[in-house]
From TrEMBL:
This is Peroxisomal trans-2-enoyl-CoA reductase. Transmembrane segments: none annotated. It comes from Azorhizobium oxalatiphilum. It catalyses: a (2E)-enoyl-CoA + NADPH + H(+) = a 2,3-saturated acyl-CoA + NADP(+); (2E)-hexenoyl-CoA + NADPH + H(+) = hexanoyl-CoA + NADP(+); (2E)-dodecenoyl-CoA + NADPH + H(+) = dodecanoyl-CoA + NADP(+); (2E)-tetradecenoyl-CoA + NADPH + H(+) = tetradecanoyl-CoA + NADP(+). The lineage of its organism: Bacteria, Pseudomonadati, Pseudomonadota, Alphaproteobacteria, Hyphomicrobiales. It is found in: Peroxisome.
Length: 291
C-alpha cells in the first residue's frame, strides 16, 4: 500500500478491493447460501461490499442498495464479472417512501429476500459540544431511523409472505473507548436496544435479529477521519491491529445464515477486544486524558 509523506495511507486505498474480495479464502462451504437472497444496504461501501462478495460467492443472490448509483454499478460489474448474481437499487434509507419502493422492487425483481444486512450508515467526527442540530439529526436519522425503516419494511414483507427472515445490523462499539462520535453512539445504542426488543417481538414471525459491532475496520469510510487519528487506530485494541472487512463479512455470514439459526438478540463484537480495552479517538485527544 502506498504511503503519503505523513505516513498516512491514501484514503482511496483503505480496505480490501474487489480483486482481494474475489479471492479471499473463506471458512464457509461453497454452497452455504445457495437459494437465498440477501439485501445489503451500504452494499457498495467497505463492509457491505465485503459481505456482498462473500455471500455471493457462497451462492446467494445479492441486492446492493445505496444512494450512489455509480458506486453501486461499479460493485455490481466487479461481482458479475466473477459470475455472481448481483442486482442494485438506489435508496436513501432515511426516507420511508424510498425504502418502501426498494422493497417493492426487490419483491418484483428478486422474489423477496431471506436476509437483510444493514451496513448503510456513518457519521462525522466532532466534539459533541459543537454538534449543530442539523448534524445531530443527520446522524440519528441515518443510523437509527434509517436502520429502523429498513427493518420494518423487511419484517412487513416477511410477515406478508409467510417467510422467515434474518437481519444483521452493523453498529459500533457503544460501551467502551470510542470518542468523538457521540451522536453515532446514541444512534447505534438505539439500534441495539431496538434489535433486542424486536428479537423477542418478531420471534413469532420467525425473524432473527442480531448486531455486529465492528472495531477499527479499514474501509473507504475512513476518509472522513484525520490521518493522525487513523494512524493510531491499530493501537486502539489489545490485538494492536486494524480489522478487515472480510472478518466482518464472515461474522455476517455466521449470524445471519444457517449457522446462527439459534442466535437472536445478540451483539457480536468484531473489534479485536476494543470493547474491553483501548481507546479510539476520532478527534484530537484532550490534554486532560494524556498521562
Ligand atoms: C474507526 C473507528 C472510528 C469510528 C467508528 C466508526 C467508523 C465508521 O463508521 S467509518 C465508515 C462510515 N462511513 C462514514 O462515516 C461516511 C462518511 N460520513 C458521511 O457521509 C456523513 O458524515 C453522514 C453520515 C452524516 C451523511 O452525510 P450526508 O447525508 O451526506 O449529509 P451532509 O454531508 O450533507 O451533512 C449534513 C449535516 O451534517 C453535519 N456535518 C456533516 N459533516 C460534518 C463535519 N465533518 N463536521 C461538522 N458537521 C458536519 C452538518 O450539519 C451538515 O449540514 P451542512 O452544514 O448544511 O452541510
Ligand atoms: N469502518 C469502520 O471502522 C467501522 C464502521 N462501522 C459502521 O459499519 C457500517 C459500514 O461502514 P463502512 O463500510 O466502513 O463505511 P462506508 O462509508 O464504506 O459504507 C457505508 C455505506 O453506507 C451508505 N449510506 C450512507 N448513508 C446512506 C443512506 N442515507 N441511504 C443509503 N445508503 C447510505 C453509503 O453508500 P452511498 O454513498 O451510495 O449512499 C456507503 O457506501 C457503517 O454503519 C459504519 O458506521 C462501525 C464501526 C467501525
Amino acid at each position: 500500500m502506498a504511503e503519503q509523506e505523513s505516513g498516512a495511507r491514501e484514503p482511496a486505498e483503505f480496505g480490501l478491493d474487489d480483486a482481494a474480495l474475489a479471492a479471499h479464502p473463506t471458512v464457509y462451504a461453497a454452497d452455504a447460501f445457495a437459494g437465498r437472497t440477501v439485501l445489503v444496504s451500504g452494499g457498495a461501501g467497505g463492509i457491505g461490499r465485503a459481505a456482498a462478495w462473500l455471500l455471493g460467492r457462497l451462492g446467494a443472490r445479492v441486492v446492493l442498495a445505496g444512494r450512489n448509483a455509480e458506486k453501486l454499478e461499479g460493485a455490481r460489474t466487479a461481482m458479475a464479472a466473477h459470475g455472481l448474481y448481483v442486482r442494485t437499487a438506489v435508496v436513501d434509507i432515511r426516507e420511508p417512501e424510498s425504502v418502501a419502493a426498494l422493497f417493492a422492487r426487490v419483491a418484483a425483481e428478486a422474489g423477496g429476500i431471506d436476509m437483510l444486512i444493514n451496513s448503510a450508515g456513518g457519521q462525522f467526527p466532532q466534539a459533541a459540544i459543537d454538534f449543530s442540530a442539523k448534524g445531530w439529526n443527520t446522524v440519528i436519522n441515518t443510523n437509527l431511523n434509517g436502520t429502523w425503516h429498513m427493518m420494518q419494511a423487511a419484517a412487513r414483507a416477511w410477515r406478508d409472505a409467510g417467510r422467515a427472515g434474518s437481519i444483521v445490523n452493523i453498529v459500533v462499539v457503544t460501551t467502551h473507548g470510542l470518542h468523538g462520535v457521540a451522536h453515532t453512539i446514541a444512534a447505534r445504542a438505539g439500534v441495539i436496544g431496538l434489535s433486542q426488543a424486536l428479537a423477542v417481538e418478531w420471534a413469532p414471525l420467525d425473524i432473527r435479529i442480531n448486531c455486529i459491532a465492528p472495531g477499527v475496520i479499514e474501509t473507504p469510510g475512513w476518509r472522513v477521519y484525520d490521518p493522525k487519528a487513523v494512524a493510531a487506530y491499530p493501537r486502539s485494541n489489545p490485538m494492536m491491529r486494524n480489522g478487515s472487512t472480510w472478518e466482518v463479512a464472515e461474522a455476517c455470514a455466521y449470524l445471519g445464515g444457517p449457522a446462527g439459526g439459534f442466535v437472536t438478540g445478540e451483539v457480536l463484537h468484531v473489534a479485536g477486544g476494543s470493547q474491553l480495552w483501548g481507546e479510539t479517538w476520532t478527534i484530537e485527544k484532550p490534554d486532560y486524558f494524556r498521562v
